Amino acid sequence: MKIVTWNINGIRTFRAGIKKALDSLDADIICVQETKVTRDLLDERTAIVDGYNSYFSYSRGRSGYSGVATYCKDSATPFAAEEGLTGLLTNHEGAVGCYGNQAEFCSEELQLLDNEGRAIITQHKIICHGKEQTVTVINVYCPRADPEKPERKQFKLQFYKLLQSRAEALLKDGSHVIVLGDVNTSHRQIDHCDPSDIEDFGENPGRKWLNGFLHNGREEEERNGEETDEESEVSSTDPMHSGKFVDTFRYFHPTRTSAFTCWSTLTGARQTNYGTRIDYIFADCQLAKEQFVAADIMPEVEGSDHCPVWGKLRCSLVPSSKPPPLCTRYLPEFAGKQQKLSRFLVKVDQKPIQPEPREALPGSQEEEERRENLNPIGAGKKRLLTSDAAAPKGKKAKTAKASSKPQGSLLSFFKPKPTNVSSTEASYEKTLSSDEVSSTQNSQKATTGDNIPSVTSTVPENTDEHFDGSEQQCTKEEHDKKMTRTQLTSQPSVGNTESKKGASSVFWKLMLRGPPPPPPCKVHGEPCVLRTVKKEGPNMGKQFFVCCRPQGHASNPEARCNFFMWVEKGK
User: Fold this and answer.
1) Most confident listed range (15-24, 50-59, 396-405)
2) Residue 199: which residues within 8 A CB-CB, separation 6 or more?
3) If you compute the radius of gyration of the chain from its CA atoms, what whole number of angstroms results?
4) Catalytic one among 58, 141, 274, 428?
5) 561 bridge partner residues
6) Which of 52, 58, 124, 182 is catalytic?
7) SS3 at position 83
8) pLDDT score, position 166
């Protein structure tokens, strides 16, 4: 029997061929996390795979978030399956049961812990020492503790407690238990690329929980003939290190270093193997000791920011004759059953055309989930009120007609609008000083257009006919001035056109200024890369330069150096 866990960072990882991807992992039970798919977005190609039966858990309050799935070969079909850890999401006969003591959780908290689609449980029959036994596989995607959201730290710890309560209840009931998936905590310093960079490494609440959940590992070290170090001696005497489960990777590789399963894609840390080991296969002590024959990681498998982890057991699986009711092939949309009309009338706005900016999700997501579940189309109504719905009746056609006109250049909005000669001359008249124009000569100056060269650029070319001497009685001096202005406005100027182009070029360079040239880093002398601060705070939106190489340990000469430079404003 072989089992695999992998945080795939989106079900699209399998889009190139999900069956091919599953077959390449060569396992009987394949557990994936962070599918980022909800039931309404689950297609038949993903849910129904030839040779496998699948079981999905989805986020109830946020699309494209969290989610886990377990794919079992037909030869490893479970006889029971259940979504979630609390039992609140189970309403069918094929449930796993054994929920443990939930007295320390209120009903609302239990609902929230299962509301993000973080657990699928399948129960299988195995043959061990010629006897049929039960093994329960708990596929989990544990929450991440966001340092900016203290409530999420508490949510993560509560999830851990619920997981441990359920696993130990199943174990107490007589079933073997395997807990696997993305636990989102590196256990020991050997599981972290740079533990010295983290203050109070061992005081992390998640690591403390792992210390109590896992066995101390002394038996593994004795079995492998390893000498116990100071850390092991301390842990072996600590009563908190007497858990009922074993980290199977460390059971077989207690001293292997640089064995990581997750790397930052933003910094390219996978190239330098600067990561953490947060994906595990935990098994109860008896199962690990008697049935597990090997366990390892698969860093060579790409497609996600995590890599798969596998474990192999000597026992064989006994498939159920029929998948349990939770199997996706029984969903009405895939089973070919007639569905209720109400299902097609539910309004869902998973992909709004112009999504409204929303507030950051609260730690437990309870407020956001309620808002999205109770009023998923509220944002769409708001958009209608501010667009077509806001326009008075009878004016929509006029608005559409106006918007269909070709749009002019941006420069045209910064120029005076040409109308007629009189208005142009009137504006010119206002610019003349009182020394040049007397109060009794204003009307005459406005007609003759004295000092014309300063305003000719705003006079249309077809205005020469208004200055024809035959239409007005005027002196020879006035006529000569009119003819001078007519010639200036009717003859195009090559130099003036070139100056306009130059001004336009300067304008667009100012408006559409590109990023500043990257400086070379001090250590490698290579051009830096431009980054933008996305973390909320006083520096949000600011840009900076860093070394272009991937992130790595300070002792690695091929890794990124510590060069950093802010981009100054106006540069």
Assistant:
1) 50-59
2) none
3) 36
4) 141
5) none
6) 182
7) strand
8) 97
For residue 345, what pLDDT is reported?
57
Neighbours of 41 (CB within 10 A): 17
Phi, psi of 22 (to 5 degrees): -65, -40
What pLDDT is attached to residue 23?
95
Question: Is residue 267 within 8 Å of residue 531, measured between CB atoms?
Answer: no
What contacts 94, CB < 8 A, 6 or more positions away?
Answer: 79, 80, 81, 82, 324, 325, 326
Q: What is the mean pLDDT of residues 500-523?
A: 75
Is 464 tagged catalytic? no
Is residue 484 pLDDT above 60, yes or no? no
DSSP three-state, residue 181: strand
241 among known catalytic residues:
no
Place of tokens 């880093």: 521
- Pairing of β 68-73 and β 29-33: antiparallel
Average pLDDT over residues 262-276: 91
**Is 191 an annotated catalytic residue?**
no
C-alpha distances in angstroms, 436 versus 82, 383, 433, 446, 479? 94, 57, 6, 12, 20
The catalytic residue among 124, 187, 241, 306 is: 306
For residues 183 and 164, give the distance between their C-alpha atoms in angstroms, rounded to a whole number. Answer: 12
Rounded alpha-carbon distances, angstroms, from residue 193 to 59, 139, 514, 553: 31, 26, 37, 7
